[in-house]
Write a sequence for this structure.
């Protein structure tokens, strides 16, 4: 039968007739026959279908088939991979990001390009895949989502302009309102990251008027709260944050946001409301660290709400005993230190903070912030500027260089470097002048008391050295040069930056800020041996010669011995007993007070202390050459509501009517300088040539007097900065280095667009006087 149906299949009958025949008479052979009969027909249909799809599935076509094809291809190929890569990168960045719970937490994780660079391959692959949707699937509904992914990835990599452009494209050309809203939320974050709060708030105002779905509403609230948090508007930020909590599930994000809400209420002084949020942290599946800090913050608020409660009884003692908190004990002591400071128990606060550093062990993340707190207490509360400077030095060792705290601490430390120098000069010279006014017998008694204090200090240092030697001889891992990070967590001192910093501060406390040099104990300098002992406190010894550390025996210096008398004469030489020496001491104190006032005003940004210092300068030295500038800076430093402010302006105008500072005050108040009209110069070029001729001939005093008079007439002239530049050189010749540098700073402030500005800024870096300029 086989040859029969094969022949029939190959005959010229209609294909459907053939199929019916074999299905009726030979059903067992149907599959074979149908394949042979229908294959050409199926093949033709597939070719036609593929050809139709290729002609009708253009990415610019609006046909339903084309749109369905591109939706399917875009979603499950390019977009899916891009989303997976970027989500993986976000998860990795979130895992590496570490919240420092003792500091203010940001509501949203910052867009940090440093963290983004660590996941660059995933982000770049996500960008590549998302770009495929933009290039090949223009009619896909996933186009807006792909551009949003592009913008996010660019922002993570620090490519701000490209990221903003992609997000703006979604807003301008997007077809789905929900996708546009999500893109705008990310645009808000981009503006916030660049501190462009005006544009960020403009976007927020637009979104506020749009109908948002639940996801977009949650993200919008978080982004807007973050804007206000970054601007320091904590009340607005926490009010918006309260609207987010009903939209959140119970998870770590909700726990973290409750903790942040508690921090914001703390800053507003609403400790009871803050406690409500700290307690809510434990109900939202927090990490152990977050739960720990929430509990500790709640205890802190209990202390603030009840000032009579004992710090060690409220619950901190229980947390210290809990073995799970062994690696967090430094945070507990840090919090106790803050609370003790708030109660104005400064020695107790310093003790807790020092315990925080000592118990930090290998985990030194909190250490620099503890040093900052110690520096603040020493500076603001105790006015111990030397120790404050040392603590700032220690904090800068470990702070991240790009952090806000590092920048502010570095500025404060630089200011304190010069401040400590000047305050020591004032204290030393003032003490020396008091000693110089004593009668010889009283002076001898005072010098003997200083020597006795030195001897006591030597004995104390000897005991401390013996104890340190005993500790060093105790067996530990340090004996073989290996840091010990196990057991009690004690580390070899040279491996622990916190211990090194403590040792440096102890050295500065005992020996002062000494330069690095050989035989520094025996180097003889003017006033060096007396600088610290001439004050009311005990002095510092020059050496510990003759000390036997093994036996701890130090032969004390006998009073009225040859050695004692020699030491007394050495100290006496530092006292300005002659008229010339006393005048030199007063001049040093006068200069130091002037510099202190300027440091307060410009570097430390403390106008009240600047006014106090300048007032003290004028009281001690009523005829000082710095009167003109002191009057001017006092006037600027006083608040407008202060009734004495006009008096200082009047003093300046009365005593120095034609001075630069008087002219500056007149310009700032009236918009024009009040100058006499008689003899008013009219030709700026000729006036300048005449002034320069005086300068070139060496008649500096006359040239300076004339240029002070003519400057007000040409303040709106194109040559005004040229006059001001010549004035700088004249002041350098007549008034000295300090007035010269002040004139340079005035030029930079008053003429920021001048063509001579680069030259003047270069002059500012030169510490000596300016040389004779060529004609310009």
């Amino acid at each position: 039968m086989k040859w029969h149906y094969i022949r029939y299949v190959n005959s010229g009958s209609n294909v459907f007739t053939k199929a019916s025949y074999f299905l009726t008479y030979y059903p067992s052979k149907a599959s074979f026959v149908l394949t042979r009969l229908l294959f050409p027909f199926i093949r033709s249909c597939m070719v036609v279908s593929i050809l139709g799809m290729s002609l009708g599935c253009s990415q610019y076509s609006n046909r339903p088939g084309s749109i369905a094809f591109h939706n399917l291809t875009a979603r499950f190929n390019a977009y899916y991979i891009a989303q997976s890569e970027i989500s993986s990168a976000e998860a990795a960045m979130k895992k590496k990001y570490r919240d420092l719970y003792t500091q203010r937490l940001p509501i949203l994780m910052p867009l940090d390009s440093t963290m983004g660079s660590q996941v660059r391959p995933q982000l770049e692959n996500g960008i590549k895949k998302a770009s495929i949707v933009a290039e090949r699937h223009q009619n896909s509904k996933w186009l807006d989502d792909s551009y949003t992914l592009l913008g996010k990835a660019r922002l993570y990599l620090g490519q701000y302009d490209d990221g903003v452009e992609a997000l703006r494209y979604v807003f301008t050309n997007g077809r789905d309102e929900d996708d546009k809203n999500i893109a705008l939320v990310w645009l808000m974050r981009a503006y916030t990251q660049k501190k462009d709060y005006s544009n960020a708030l403009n976007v927020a105002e637009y979104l506020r008027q749009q109908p948002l779905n639940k996801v977009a509403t949650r993200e919008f609230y978080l982004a807007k709260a973050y804007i206000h948090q970054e601007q320091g508007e904590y009340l607005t930020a926490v009010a918006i944050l309260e609207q987010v909590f009903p939209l959140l599930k119970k998870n770590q994000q909700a726990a973290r946001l409750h903790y942040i809400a508690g921090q914001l209420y703390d800053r507003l002084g609403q400790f009871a409301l803050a406690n409500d949020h700290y307690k809510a942290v434990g109900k939202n599946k927090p990490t152990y660290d977050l739960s720990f800090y929430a509990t500790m913050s709640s205890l802190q608020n209990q202390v603030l709400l009840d000032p009579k409660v004992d710090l060690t009884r409220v619950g901190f003692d229980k947390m210290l005993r809990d073995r799970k908190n062994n690696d967090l004990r430094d945070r507990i002591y840090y919090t106790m230190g803050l609370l003790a400071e708030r109660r104005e128990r400064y020695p107790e606060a310093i003790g807790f903070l020092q315990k925080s550093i000592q118990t930090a062990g290998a985990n030194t993340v909190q250490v620099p912030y503890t040093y900052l707190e110690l520096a603040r207490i020493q500076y603001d509360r105790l006015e111990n500027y030397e120790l404050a400077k040392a603590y700032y030095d220690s904090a800068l060792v470990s702070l991240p260089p790009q952090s806000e705290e590092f920048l502010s601490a570095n500025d404060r430390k630089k200011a304190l470097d010069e401040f400590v120098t000047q305050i020591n000069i004032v204290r030393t010279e003032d003490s020396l002048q008091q000693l110089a006014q004593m009668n010889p017998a009283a002076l001898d008694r005072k010098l003997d008391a200083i020597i006795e204090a030195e001897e006591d200090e030597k004995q104390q240092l000897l005991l401390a050295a013996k104890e340190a030697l005993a500790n060093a001889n105790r067996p530990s891992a340090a004996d073989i040069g290996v840091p010990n990070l196990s057991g009690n967590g004690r580390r070899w001192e040279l491996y622990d930056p916190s211990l090194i910093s403590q040792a440096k501060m102890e050295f500065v406390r005992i020996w002062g800020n000494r330069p690095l040099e050989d035989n520094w104990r025996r180097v003889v300098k003017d006033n060096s041996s007396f600088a610290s002992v001439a004050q009311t406190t005990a002095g510092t010894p020059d050496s510990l010669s003759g000390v036997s550390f093994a036996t701890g025996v130090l032969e004390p210096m006998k009073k009225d011995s040859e050695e004692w008398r020699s030491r007394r004469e050495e100290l006496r030489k530092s006292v300005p007993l002659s008229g010339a020496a006393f005048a030199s001491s007063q001049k040093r104190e006068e200069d130091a007070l002037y510099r202190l006032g300027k440091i307060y005003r410009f570097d430390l940004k403390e106008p009240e202390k600047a006014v106090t210092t300048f007032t003290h300068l004028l009281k001690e030295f009523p005829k000082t050459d710095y009167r003109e500038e002191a009057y001017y800076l006092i006037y600027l430093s006083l608040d407008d509501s202060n009734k004495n402010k006009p008096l200082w302006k009047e003093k300046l105008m009365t005593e120095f009517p034609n001075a630069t500072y008087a002219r500056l005050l007149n310009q700032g108040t009236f918009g024009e300088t009040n100058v006499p009209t008689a003899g008013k110069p009219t030709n700026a070029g000729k006036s300048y040539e005449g002034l320069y001729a005086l300068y070139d001939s060496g008649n500096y005093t006359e040239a300076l007097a004339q240029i002070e008079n003519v400057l007000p007439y040409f303040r709106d002239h194109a040559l005004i900065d040229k006059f001001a530049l010549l004035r700088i050189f004249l002041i350098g010749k007549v008034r000295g280095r300090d007035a010269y540098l002040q004139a340079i700073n005035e030029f930079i402030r008053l003429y920021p667009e001048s063509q001579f500005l680069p030259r003047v800024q270069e002059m500012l870096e030169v510490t000596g006087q300016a040389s004779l300029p060529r004609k310009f």
The mean pLDDT is 77. Residues 391 and 713 are 51 Å apart (CA to CA). Residues 440-473 form the longest helix (34 residues). Residues 406-455+528-536+564-656 form one domain.
